[in-house]
Specification:
Elements (H helix, E strand, L loop, with lengths): L1 H25 L3 H11 L12 E2 L2 E2 L5 H15 L2 H25 L6 H8 L18 H6 L14 H19 L2 H10 L1 H11 L11 H18 L19 E6 L6 H6 L5 H7 L16 E6 L9
Antiparallel strand pairs: 1-2, 3-4
Pfam families: SLT (PF01464)
InterPro entries: Lysozyme-like_dom_sf, Transglycosylase_SLT_dom_1
Protein name: Lytic transglycosylase domain-containing protein
Length: 309
């Protein structure tokens, strides 16, 4: 029995020594830290695809200026990983709403990526007052038939705002001559783009000298299109269940005053918060509706939310 105890003690001593040797080898010295940094974290130069296009219009990558600008947007958006993941997640939720409306209007599907760079697919509000997923200004919204006031702001209605964006883009394409210019015109305005084209005596977005924001605008759209269309290629790894879900809804017509949306929501088995999530265009907890206009309120189908009794 004594030899067993001695053997166990020797094994214990050897294990302890091995532990200390391992600990010393793994100690965070400057040299080890540098080795780990090099081996565990790598940033790669990206190869700009030679066949990039937007709305069927080729990007002239043979031009070194265009190549550099495209490379910049691919790098910035690939290595801003947290933001990239959010775009993948939100796209699964909002693209099913946006895509059929674009198709109905004959607007190229690529314009859904314009909404991505405009708002990150959120109901954002810019310092200039542009609002909603499509970042529509108050005057533009009203010009194209949206109701915009403190009680109802239809710029926050994704479906109606997408309809307006389509009408604007079609008009811009007709005025400026190409879908690429129409996209740039969404940022700089139709009149502004037409003036710059005339002043510089060119006919292509890629030949224009523009300010920082509009000069990057189309390249950002194309970069997001490329990355969101090829997640594996750009190092984004996720499962289908990691993405946000599109929650189907049905519409309830309302042509009267609603004095309390909390009570209204309970009548459909949801609460006020859930009602607002699906109808952010309802800006107050009531609907004034003095004109008895008919509104359509989205109610999520049963089973997608569970509320406390």
């Amino acid at each position: 029995m004594k030899w067993i105890k001695n053997t166990l003690a020797l094994l214990g001593l050897l294990s302890l020594c091995a532990f200390f040797v391992f600990a010393l080898q793994d100690a965070p010295t400057d040299e080890n830290f540098e080795k780990k940094l090099i081996n565990d974290y790598n940033v790669y130069a990206l190869q700009v695809p030679s066949d990039l296009e937007f709305a069927g219009e080729q990007v002239p990558l043979h031009n070194p200026d265009i190549l550099e600008r495209m490379d910049r947007e691919l790098l910035v958006n690939t290595y801003w990983q947290s933001n990239g993941f959010l775009m993948f997640k939100r796209a699964r939720k909002y693209f099913p709403i946006i895509e059929p409306i674009l198709a109905k209007h004959g607007v190229p599907d690529d314009f859904k990526y314009l909404a991505v760079i405009e708002s990150g697919l959120t109901n954002a509000k810019s310092p200039a007052g542009a609002s909603g997923v499509w970042q529509i200004m108050k005057a533009t919204g009203r010009e194209y038939g949206l109701e915009v006031n403190s009680n109802v702001d239809e710029r926050y209605n994704v479906e109606l705002a997408t309809e307006v964006a389509c009408e604007y883009l079609k008009k811009s394409k007709e005025k400026l001559g190409s879908w690429t210019l129409a996209a740039a015109g969404y940022n700089a305005g139709m009149a502004g783009m037409a003036r710059r084209l005339k002043e510089q005596d060119v006919s292509s977005y890629y030949d224009l000298l523009l300010g920082e924001e509009t000069g990057r605008y189309v390249f950002r759209i194309i970069a997001l299109k490329e990355i969101l269309s090829n997640p594996d290629k750009y190092g984004f790894n996720f499962r289908d269940k990691d993405l946000y879900r599109y929650i189907p809804t049905y519409k309830v017509a309302v042509d009267t005053v609603v004095t309390d949306f909390s009570s209204f929501a309970k009548g459909f088995g949801i609460n006020y918060k859930i009602l607002k999530i699906h109808n952010p265009w309802l800006r107050e907890p009531k609907l004034n509706n003095a004109s008895r206009k008919e509104y359509f309120i989205d109610i999520p189908q049963q089973g997608y939310y569970k509320t406390q009794p």
